[in-house]
C-alpha cells in the first residue's frame, strides 16, 4: 500500500499544485498591500500608531474568528467549492472599499478589510493542508516552501504597485480627503481578478482532498490510539507550533507594517512614502528568494535546524538595528525578510508531523494562530507611541527568540502516553 503513493502522487498532482499556487500568489499580494494602507490611512485620518494598527488587527483577527467556521464549511462543501467561495468573499471585501472611500469612513475601511480577510482565511484553511496532502509526506515541508515562494512573489509586487497606485496618487492629491480616491481603483481591479480566478477554479477539476486524507489514514503512518484521537492538545509539538505560528506571523506583519514609517524618519533614512514603499518590496522579495532556496536546502538539511538558524539570525539583525540606528537600521531590518522566508511553511509542517487522523484539526488550530498578525503589531504600536519607533522593534525580536527555541527543541514530537489500550475502567486515570 505504501509503495503506491510515491509512484502516483508526483505525476497526478502537478497540475493541481500549479493551480493552487495562484491562490498563494494572490493572497500574498493582497496581504502586503496592508503595509501600504497603514501610512496612507494614518495620514488621511490623522491616526496614532495604535489606531493605524487596527488595519492589521481587523485583517488578522478574521483568521481567529473565521478559521473554525471555515473548517466546518470545507467539510460540507469540499475543498474546491470552499476555495471558490473564499475567492468570492474576498472579492466582495475589495468592492467594499468603494463605499468606505466615498463616505470617508475609517470604520468602513476596517469592515472591508475584515470581509476581505475572511475570504482569504477560507483560502488558507483549504490550501495549506491541501498542498501538504498532494504529494509524498516526507517532502511536504519542501513543497509548501515552494508554493509559499509564490506567495512572497505576490507580496513583493504588492508594495511596488501600492506605492505607485495608492501612495503616489495620494501625494498628488490636494488634501487628505481627496487622497482616499487612490484606494478604490486598485481594489476594484483586485475584485475583478478574484472573481475571474474563482471562475477558473470552479471550472478546473481538482482531486478530492478528503479522499486523499482517508487514503493516508488507511496507509497507517501517524495513526493514533483510539483513546487519543480527540485529544489535540496532548500533542506538545503541535501546541508549541501554534505559538510559533502566532509569533512568526506577528513578527513578520509587525516589521512590514512599521518599515515605511521608519524609513521616512529623518533620523533613519528620510525617504518619502513612495520611495519607502518601493524599498519595502525588498523585504518581501528577500522572502521570495529565501523560499525558493529553502525548498532546495531542506532536501539536504533538517528543516528544524534551518528554522533555528534563521530565527537566531533575525534576533541578531534586529538587535543590531536597534543599537546602530540610522540607514544601517533600515538595511538590517529589510534583511530580516530573507530569514523570514522559510519560517511559516517549516513551522506548519513540523507542527503537523505525526498527527495522522488529527492532521486537518491540527491545521485549523495553526490557522487560528495566525491571529498573531493582529496582536503583535498592536503591542509594537503601544511601544512606538510611548517609547519610540526604532526601539519598538524589540517586540518582534522577542518573537524570533521563541521561534529559535521551537526549531532547536520545541518541535520534537512527544509520544502520547497510554499508547497501549488501557485496561477496562482505567480511562479516568490515564490523563496525559
TrEMBL record:
| Tree of life domain | Bacteria
- Write out the GO MF terms: D-glucose transmembrane transporter activity; galactose transmembrane transporter activity
> InterPro entries under this entry?
Glc/Gal_transptr_bac, MFS, MFS_dom, MFS_trans_sf, MFS_TsgA-like
> Which PROSITE patterns does the record associate with it?
MFS (PS50850)
What PANTHER family does UniProt report for this protein, alphabetically? Answer: L-FUCOSE-PROTON SYMPORTER (PTHR43702), PROTEIN TSGA (PTHR43702:SF3)
Give the protein's function.
Intake of glucose and galactose.
Q: Which residues cross the membrane?
A: 12-30, 50-70, 82-100, 106-127, 148-167, 187-204, 238-264, 276-294, 306-324, 330-352, 364-383, 389-408
Write out the similarity annotation: Belongs to the major facilitator superfamily. FHS transporter (TC 2.A.1.7) family.
Which GO biological process categories is it annotated with? Answer: D-glucose transmembrane transport
Q: Does the keyword Acetylation apply?
A: no
The UniProt entry, under NCBIfam families, shows:
gluP (TIGR01272)
Entry GO CC: plasma membrane
Describe its membrane topology. Answer: Multi-pass membrane protein
* Name of this chain's protein: FHS family L-fucose permease-like MFS transporter
Ranges for domain Major facilitator superfamily (MFS) profile come to 16-432
Where is it located? Cell inner membrane
Q: Name one Pfam family in it.
A: MFS_1
Record keywords: Cell inner membrane, Cell membrane, Membrane, Sugar transport, Transmembrane, Transmembrane helix, Transport
- Main localization (coarse): membrane
Q: Which residues form the signal peptide?
A: none
